User: Fold these one by one.
Assistant:
Number 1:
Amino acid sequence: MYFLTGWPRRLLCPLRSEEEPFHIQPSSQRFYFAVLSETQLSIWFSRPSVLIVSYIESAKAAAQFGFYQKAEWKPDDSMIAVATAKGYILLFDVLGGGDDKYLYEPVYPRGSTRVKVTPGYKEEQCAPALSLEMKKPVDLEAPITSLQSLQEDLLVCTADGYLHVLHWDGLGSNGRKAICLTTIPFSLDLQSARGGPSLDLEGVYIRCMEYCLTLDGFAVVLSDGRLGFITPLSNTITADQLQGVWAADVTDGTCVAVNNKYRLMAFGCASGSVLVYMIDTTTGSMQLSHKLELTPKHYPDTYNKTGPVKLICWSPDYSVAMVTWERGGLSLWSVFGAHLICTLGEDFAYRSDGTKKDPIKISSMSWGAEGYHLWVLPNKQERRRQEEQQQQQHQQQQEEGVVEEEEEEMVTPPPSSLQAGILQFHFIKSALTVNPCTSNQEQVLLHGEDRLYLTCGDPTQVNNTSDTHPHTHLHPHDGSPLHHSPNPDSSLSQGLSTLLGHKHWHVVQIHSTYLESNWPIRFAAIDTAGQCMAVAGRRGFAHYSLFTRKWKLFGNITQEQNMTVTGGLAWWNDFVVVACYNFIDQQEQLRLYQRSTNLDNAFASVTKLHSDTLLLNVFRDMVILFRADCSICLYSIERRNDSPHPTASVELLQEVSMSRYIPHPALVVSVTLTSVRTETGITLKAPQQACMAESIMLNLAGQLIMLQRDRSGPQVREKETPANSKKLLPFCPPVVLAQCVENVWTTCRSNKKKRHLLEALWLSCGEAGMKVWLPLFPRDHRKPHSFLSRRIMLPFHINIYPLAVLFEDALVLGATNETVLYDGLQGSSEPLEALFPYCTVERTSQIYLHHILRQLLVRNLGEQALMLAQSCASLPYFPHVMELMVHVVLEEEATSREPIPDPLLPTVAKFITEFPLFLQTIVHCARKTEYALWNYLFAAVGNPKDLFEECLMAQDLDTAASYLIILQNMEVPAVSRQHATLLFNTALEQGKWDLCRHMIRFLKAIGSGEMETPPPTPTTQEPSSTGGFEFFRNRSISLSQSADSIATGKFNLQKTFSMPSGPSVKGRDVECAENMYIDMMLWRHARHLLEQVRLRDLGCFSAQLGFELIGWLCRERNRVARIEDFVSALKRLHKDFLWPFPVIPVGSLSSPLKNGRCRTVLSTRLLKSQSADSLLNSDMDTAPPQAAPTNHTWLDGLGQRAKDIDTASSAHSNQHSPQTHDAFLSLLTNKVEEYSVGSATDLTETSSVVDGDWTMVDENSSTLSLSQAELEHISMELANKGPHKSQVQLRYLLHVFTEAGCLEWCVVIGLILRDANVIKQVIGFLDSPEVPQETVQSVRSGLLAVDTWASTDCLGYKPFLNLIQPQLQLLMDSAIGEQVQPEAFQPISQSSKLGGSEGLGGAAVPRAEDSRGVAAPLGLALPSLEPTGGFSRPPSEDCPPEQTEEQGDEEGAYDCTLS
């Protein structure tokens, strides 16, 4: 509604005076302010804020009259009345200084376009020169307590109990009446006035009085603290014609302010609260509407220590009230009690170091024009105190000798710095306060005195947001990420983030040329798309488009100055609709201006109106006007494209007189056409009517009144009547829908899926929160129930002040004041900037769906709630809505002290089971509530064990993991271990590696949680029993018994041990057992994968979980690591690694390239085009998406290995110079006779090297010249190769199997890679006496089977099989009659061959499980701790030494290993 912005400004009075100003009174238009000090009357101008004239009383007159006390303006600003201490009224004439007398004039640069054409133009923007002349004083002979100006009269209350009526003009004896208060009869209401109890008013006088125009009476506070309201029964004010009513039970009134628009009287009380009364129209009695008071919830320190209310000020548009107390502070409330700002808390009241500031005490305050400023006079004592503090500080500084001669001038406070300071607070306000048109309701539009704040466009305009600090000077920027979502958990779609996420505004500066002659801005409007704005000031109007970022002003300034907007602005498509008064024709008009044409009356369509327009609104193609004669007019608008410029034609449809129902036209706050109706049954039969203008909503002083079309008469079928002669139905008599309404939102859009939300009516009701008038629809397949053809009014509370409702998105948008402290500015005296924080306005939003669903469930309308929820289930924050609903109900019911007769939680739980989110919602809600409430929650929703199993069945493993935490806190460790094991196995099977890692940690934590006491100093590898589970959002896992004291813990925990162990057993044993248990599960899974020939999954599993694949394969070499069927294994690898089966070139089977020279260069070249990063970041296909950011791939953790191992092992590092590669590659080249450098470079060259360096591989041949046949061959080679990633993975697996001695697998991978070297090596190994006979037999028969299969099914393999024919022959020959002894496999003699293999295929990528180990310098022998059945390698220079399995284990192969 209204929001503070920036710092207050201090206005200094140029006149030196000892006197302090203590009273400020605005003129009727608030362009002038009368400021009183003891003997001085000054007049200030509003813009620029300058002193115009000051009248200083002579000492002699001051002695006669006494000091000045109060002032009041005549309504036409021509006179001022001042009350003095000795009972005199002094009247001053305010005289203008003639035509050319201006104090201040704007100076334009030469050649400026601003020509002074119109006669009244100049004074619009100049501060006029005024003078004051005192007329004859009037002596009332008693102290004056209150002044009140009427049209022709001045009412003065005196302390002797009289009410004086003075004429402004004829101030002789004839113009003066005195009415004694005791002669006015006071009663509790007007009906019992003649005979009822009356107040005894002996010795009582009126302390404070204010006239209310729309109630036609005076709100008074009597000297005994009673509150009253005095009504004149006739037009003249005479003693026998006055009648009073008083409010029962109040005796501590201090001041009063009336609200003319809403017919409210706000009385301040000595208790510090403000009582807001209304007059009951039937009985005439005073009824309490609501209270404005600080709540102990938000202001625990100050809510009852404010002292009595000192002043209440309603804003010029009557939508907010500012309150200040005797002990200082300012607080702002909306008209029906929504609290907006208070300076008694937070940054206003405390410095950044926590010390309390003194609240500023205020002696008088007043709103400026249109409510953009609040003019405040600080208290006299406040100033004196500041002055004394400064003098003390100054003296101290002088005593300490701090001040040097030159600086003394600066340190002494100049007298003016504390003189006659007026503080000006700046406000920005919602456009709805004065121009509540429909398009302003779906966009948040705020306007300050010179700028507009808007939300950054509609959801489709994602990039149109701004990304700067939310201070007053914002600049539009392009899109920024989501800074702040209204609820930390809601995951938002990108489209909605513009509406939700940003705190920042799009700020549009209003054109200065328009502003300087037409300040203040009175109306502002934005179109429904949020792309065009229009503003209207004193005269004319201007509009702005976000597309062009330009303002359009009237080209002809005379046209601008000849019209003034009276009833507001609205957008209709691309037309601005304006209700204005034309000064030349002296008549009201309705005008439409097209956005794209120049702003000129020549392009406007003008309709004459018969009466002044007060309000204007647009609904579809209709304009609705509310006029000063209390009638409502409906016009239709039609776009005409016949002329060169599009125009609009306007036609009167209907007039509705409301004078019977509206006592005063100024009471109507807003008027809206809607398609809302009470009988939803009709809308079901004829849904096309949902778009029609069905009813009028009037906000009459906070009462929402609805006029529906009367369909009771004979209905004409629409087809029979021609379109143009269609007569509109009359309206029924009005019905009151709600009280205390500040704003109404409705939409003309329709959407079959979200009918509940789009056909509802939304109301904002001040402190009562919001209300929604929701339609209730029957299910589609049923007849409408008679009781269901209605609507229901549901109230709900929200934490923000609502400014816009997004109907489809189920969101309320608002704004809130934020503050920024700048304490560093403290000097010798605290400047304003240190007293007040810097205020900013931030956008906020709130979800309301859960409130409505809950209200429907409470009222047993579960079916409606279900329909509504299903229509919104696609919203990105729908899961959050569900959680909120469970959470709020749970907190209320579980913490209630009395038993709840009809608990809602079971109903809510049952409701949520209708949605697939059920399991997730419950567990998220439980995790966010405290443990004490869990039993209550799960009693309603079901046993967590069952819910866990449901998650497993639904394959929702992440939710199941969350349930595990619940189980771990609610059940004994054995149960949670059992469930964790289930989940672990499922996660392994599905390849959810992140989850697997967390489960390993979790299982270990359960083990360590069973020890008697946690280890005293946990080593680096040991997770302490509570903590370090990032997966569980840093929630510490409590031990299985809930928080028993440590002393008794020993005995309690022994019972829950899952292993038979005495109290003396060390925690290490438990941990070993736990690790053994986990290892068994990992081994079982690996065996399972290998049995199913899922090599890719196996590699992924090993890399992701740090599984020691080589050690395990060594143990399983003669068991599960055998291959039964080579052909099916080969086929399976082709499928898993997306590797194409080789094809034969059509021409011939023989390769044109005898040595693989060309192939080498090419594969190297190909690899260089792919950088290492792409390899490392591309995740395995099987890995879950969550794992992506952790970068776990086959080469898991390579970066942690020291760089001083051979270059071959550091495929990860990108820093190699080309020379390093050069040396390395040439070394290989010289060593291997029939080389295929591709196999090595596949791994090393993945680092991103400059593209030009590739020729270095080909040292032995100077140039490359390729024939046609060679090119064909290269393309064939490419076609026969799989993806680069698969190639790297296969090479890695080959290395692993070679290490582990699983020769059959080496053969299969060698075949798929078609790498003759591999086959050659393996067959070489087979000669060794240590290889078991069945392995040799298996390889032999496997190769024969492949050969047979290739001959029939896959001829592409034939060339390769021919290439390795010599080796195959060798193998066949060796089979004859040779006996091999099955000894331990220790191939010492083959060291050079092994080294070669590692150089080619192996060492280029170190094993994942060793990568975290400490790297040894090249060539050092490491102690080998191989498991039995392993083989030890000699440290040969050819292969970089690698840590063995046990060592990798010790050094932390898991994230959370045993020690």
Number 2:
Amino acid sequence: MAGAALYTQYNRVWIPDAEEVWKSAEIAKDYRVGDKVLRLLLEDGTELDYSLDPESLPPLRNPDILVGENDLTALSYLHEPAVLHNLRIRFAESKLIYTYSGIILVAMNPYKPLPIYGDAIIHAYSGQNMGDMDPHIFAVAEEAYKQMARNNKNQSIIVSGESGAGKTVSARYAMRYFATVSKSSSNTHVEDKVLASNPITEAVGNAKTTRNDNSSRFGKYTEISFDERNQIIGANMRTYLLEKSRVVFQSENERNYHIFYQLCASAQQSEFKHLKLGSAEEFNYTRMGGSTVIEGVNDRAGMVETQKTFTLLGFKEDFQMDVFKILAAILHLGNVQVTAVGNERSSVSEDDRHLEVFCELLGLERSKIAQWLCNRKIITTSETVVKPMTRPQAINARDALAKKIYAHLFDFIVERINQALQFSGKQHTFIGVLDIYGFETFDVNSFEQFCINYANEKLQQQFNLHVFKLEQEEYMKEDIPWTLIDFYDNQPVIDLIEAKMGILELLDEECLLPQGTDENWLQKLYNNFVNKNSLFEKPRMSNTSFIIQHFADKVEYKCEGFLEKNRDTVYDMLVETLRASKFHLCANFFRENPVPPSPFGSAITVKSAKPLVKPNNKQFRTTVGSKFRGSLYLLMETLNATTPHYVRCIKPNDEKLPFEFDSKRIVQQLRACGVLETIRISAQSYPSRWTYIEFYSRYGVLMTKQELSFGDKKEVCKVVLHRLIQDSNQYQFGKTKIFFRAGQVAYLEKLRLDKLRQSCVVIQKHIRGWLQRKKFLRERQAALTIQQYFRGQQTVRKAVTATALKEAWAAIIIQKYCRGYLVRNLYQLIRVATITIQAYTRGLLARRRYRKMLEEHKAVILQKYARAWLARRRFQSIRRFVLNIQLTYRVQRLQKKLEDQNKENHGLVEKLTSLAALRASDTEKIQKLESELDRAATHRHNYEEKGKKYKAAMEEKLAKLQKHNSELEIQKEQIELQLREKTEELKGKMDDLTKQLFDDVQKEEQQRILLEKSFELKTQDYEKQIWSLKEDIQALKEEKMHLHHQLEEERVTSDGLKGEVAQLRKQAKTISEFEKEIELLQTQKIDVEKHVQSQKREMREKMSEITKQLLESYDIEDVRSRLSLEDLEHLNEDGELWFAYEGLKKATHVLESHFQSQKDCYEKEIEALNFKVVHLSQEINHLQKLFREETDINESIRHEVTRLTSENMDTTLSYRSSAHLPGYPFSAFLPLPSPLPRLRILGHLWAVSQMIPDFKQQISELEKQKQDLETRLNEQTESMKGKLEELSNQLNRNREEEGTQRKTIEAQNEIHIKEKEKLISKIQEMQEASEHLKKQFETESEVKSTFRQEASRLTVENRDLEEELDMKDRVIKKLQDQVKTLTKTIEKAQQYNIFKISDSWDAWVAQWMSICVWLRA
């Protein structure tokens, strides 16, 4: 299809415009080859004759269907006006800031916050393909993350654009997406640290410019590292070309770096007062641009945020304060005044306040800094010369020093951030985010713009190669024949800059010359490149500039300052002075051998360069250009080794207005960022690509019936294209897509619109004809109806007469009276019928109510007598049952008493025989004991001598302590005098702190008084303890005599206890049987409930059957006939319906009463069973709790006894021999230190032994009670009779017995209290005895330490004993509560005659106590 054929009427084209760049117009007349003028109709309605160039026709406008596409490469016509118009529609009208351009994401800065970056949006894009959803920065990030996870290949996201286009924000959102999607499960919070690095780098590397309030003045490449699970493990940052000149110079309406203003805004805070800062207007380096405040930005809040991010990255306050100290020193350095001394000299006063603060903050010598700011040292082969500098040279030296310090600080902060983001594991893959400056061209372009545009040339070359490669891969994938595409290659420009003898090399060469100047370097450029390289030009009107033809535009650079900025040098003597700084951070910045960068990411990582200061060898100094070229080379290697993704940020206008579209500025940026180059490459090949299904569904209108009959849609598309487009070079068929050259989709759209237009004309023709026919038929029908009514009216007028009207009126009157008569008769009949029915029904209801009242009264009387009879019968059965239980219980108890007496008699006989045998053995033992007593007497004499020696030693130590106390008192008096003198001096010097010091003195005096009191108390305690030691020696002699008697008693009791404990363990196994019996009772309860429910169901079914039988016995038709008017009088007389109703009512009443009685019986039985089950479970739980508490008390007593015996094992030899006698069975199990605790424990054991004989009887009684319960439950289900009067009498008797029982309980409580007091006195005696034993045999420790240890130990023992007493009190209280619960259970049990009421309350309580002990055992 020829291009000229598309220029037909109604098609639209783009023509150039001075304001809008491109303007749309519609073709008013078809174009023919050879025409010199094209007739156009503009959008405002004016006609225009546009002069044509036959070789370049105006670009065609895309069809409306393609306007607003997500991807610019999907447009049929790919050219500059189409791209600009599509961006305008999406941005200005649809408020969409993101658009794809092939692999590029074009991002327009809205200058307005948008709600499209929340976590919900992140999760919506997570896992989606790039084309499935609207264009977004998250879609690009997701595509990079998905390719990294799928292919295990490193990725890069390259964000570029000019200042103010939104690069920093886009890079920040991309990093936030990775941090959210790949959040790790560990607690290291690496993602938060990665995001926290952004505010710090923005504070120290961003500043306000005329184009952007937060412009990044450096390039940044951030590598986010991932592990094998694709989770973030760390990050690394590289920076490029920091704009150091901004530290000392800012243009109008611009600011220095944000961190300076944040620091000045926080200067009044206490933590920053030592920096001696003020407002930003007070410093030269911050007020130079005349704009110290950004509208809507709070610098103090920014400082708080910066400190928070420092802390989050693990930077301590000392590190932060060091950074702030260097920043404050830079500000003070800028205010150092340099005065001119003549024309060739200058000077700096050493008394300058800012110089003093600068040297104080950095730890420098003020005289040296003042000297070398105005002088420099020149070293030659023969001598060293100090040359003074003029005032401008000194100011330049001062500014160079400030720039150098800030550059070192910036690199140091970046290095520390990398260390904070460093990880210990192995990096699997990474995603790099490159936030770098875009192509820049200003009115005055210097060295910074030259380096920036050089970097963009390298990035554009990499971008072109990548796009070309992707196009080739797409064609190879679809098996499309590949033809070479001609695209712009900027390698010549790159060679001009970086090749041998290029611009950078000539610049470095000129920097090495001592007398090198910008003019000499520029002259070399003119000589080497003017008229020799087409990309280099010399301006016509200037001899201090040169022009380079970049890929985006021509840029004119001013050579002034190139050499100085490339050298980036500070005079050697200033460097040496700073190297000798006392401030470690400043000294590290300028040391000769800087520490190499960390190995983290060493393969490709290059940090911002730090110049190696070598004053004696200038040839080896590295220039800024060479460092930048090296870092850029490594960046290109990194990007080439990764899969790149491109984000081009566009600034829509210079006024920062939201959603304002400035076509000129946008076209300039599109040309500079490579978007149009991508479109041009796509346009040279096959830019439009449709799948076969999309083509079939879109252009099915152009297909014929024969073509549509084919089954394969792919073949249909091929046939249609061969027919529609004869030139086969205009399209290609791939495996899944059809590729079209530029303009072919628009041609197909034109054919489709023509086809639709023809079809619309045909449809309009038929619809309009149908509407006209319908209108004609409607009008014809209306005319016929009008004629019909008109002719009928004429015939009526002819037929109507006076006689006909009279006859009609008479007929109406007759009808009225006849109908009224009939209606009145019918009304009277109905009224009489309703009155009679009401009378009979009301009488029927009144009689029914009367009979019901009589029946209910009689039923109540019958129920009263029946229930009384049942209650009497039940009481008699219960009474007989209780008597039987009492008889059996008393018989069994008498039998057991007889058996016990027989056993006791048998035991006494055996004891008599054993005593006879023991007597012989005891005589032998007595002889042995006498010999042992002689030995003990000798040992006692030795111990007495040792005691005297210890007493003398203790008296000497007490004397020493008294001397030490006197010395301490003298020292205290001296300290008090010194304190008084110091307080008087402090009062004179510091008036503001007098109140605080007075309070402190009072506190010290109070503490001194407390110490003196505590010391006096301790001395009194020591004297008491010495006196108690004398009494303990006498008490030990008396205690020896009691030990022998107690040991013999313990042997007898221990043997009996062992046997009884074994029996208790056997009997404890029966508890599980009780639990099983409770479970059986619960199952019986459930069965009873099920039985009741089944009976309810059967009763309901019987009721339904009875009602059905009654209803079937009556004939409905007979009833209806009897309810006629004639038989209403016989209804009351016959009474058949009444008798039937009464019979049914009686039957239901009898069934209901029977059912209610059964229900009540079952509910009572269930309640009784529930009560018994709950009561038994509560009793068992309560007994188990008591048993646990008793065991805890026994265990604590055992531990206490063992501890005391271990301490008293060395008391006497006699006690040793008795404690370790062979054949003593209980000595190792229960050794006792003194007689009093032994007696207490033996008392417990005796109480337990008294309870053991009754355990067997209680167990048998419980078994019998279990059998009685089972029989009782069976009897209750069958019979429920008793007498209420006998139960009431029995209750009165029980109340009287309870009164007597309460008195006995109170008496027992008094006995328990007395026993408790005895126990307390015994415990106190035991404490004193144990203290004496311990204090006597501690020979190796000092006296003072022994006193303290004994005091602490005694306090601990007192606490333990108090806890034991509290435990005993709790046990007594629990026993009292148990007695109360038992009284309640007895009252309930008497109602059901379950337990036997014993004659003596004491015996009954003893039984229950024995049961409790048995259950707990």
